[in-house]
Write a structure and sequence with these properties.
This protein has about 220 residues and is α+β, with helices and mostly antiparallel strands. It is built from 5 helices and 15 strands.
Length: about 220
């Protein structure tokens, strides 16, 4: 019974998050709400959280629309006497490209402290941690190694591709970002709809990098020896 109740409010709360329904989202938070995030640090109070969410659902959301998905089989729920319940588990985050397209970018662990009040279940504390980049396809190191190197995109511009654990990393001047694999030769960013495709030559060696945005080629460059 308790498990079903908590799973139900979890579903409503994160449906509001996925859809930037800020009114419903705020209705679940207690006044002294606290959110501990391994990357973002501590957000203290409901007002501070809503300020952060308003920003997240504004310009940032236009570039990086995300969907949270609960890994249901990972969830455990335990009662807290005279208070509510603690919910622990794992969830995944997807970059939403369009109505029918999305790409996996991250998995993390969470702990939610739920409080029962006269107005229903409310979130008192949230801990979100152990965020790990994860992509649709996991490639072996020897495949990733083939793509590392420098790519001449223009006479005065070079893009550098390195390996970052099980991902690739692109560096273009002062800007850098991880690349997530969706096939043996295609990779994507964790924001927008941008793809990087590595092209082999006749001898099977990587010779070219092509960049697409919203399905259209925007530039290409050759790999330097």
């Amino acid at each position: 019974m308790l498990f079903k109740q908590v799973i139900s409010v979890d579903s409503i709360f994160f449906h509001a998050l996925n859809n930037c329904d800020l009114k419903t989202y705020e209705s679940f938070l207690v006044d002294d709400f606290e959110f501990y995030h391994d990357r973002g640090g501590l957000t203290k109070s409901r007002d501070a959280e809503m300020k952060s969410m308003t920003s997240f659902c504004g310009e940032q959301r236009q570039q990086q629309k995300l969907r949270r998905e609960l890994i249901r089989e990972s969830v455990e729920v335990s009662p807290i006497k005279d208070f509510g319940a603690v919910e622990t588990g794992r969830h995944r985050f997807f970059l939403v490209i369009g109505d029918k397209s999305e790409k996996l970018i991250e998995e993390a662990k969470f702990t939610n402290i739920w409080q029962t009040l006269s107005t229903g279940w409310k979130l008192s504390r949230v801990i979100s941690y152990d965020h790990r980049p994860i992509s649709n396809v996991q490639l072996d190191d020897n495949v990733l190694d083939r793509y590392t190197g420098k790519y001449q995109m223009a006479p005065d511009r070079v893009i550098v591709i390195t390996k970052n654990q099980k991902l690739l990393r692109v560096k273009d001047g002062d800007w850098s970002a991880d690349l997530y694999s969706e096939s043996n030769s295609k990779f994507y960013l964790d924001h927008g709809n941008v793809q990087f495709e590595f092209v082999n030559g006749q001898k099977g060696r990587v010779e070219k990098l092509v960049i697409f945005e919203n399905g259209n080629q925007i530039e290409s460059g050759t790999k330097k020896d």
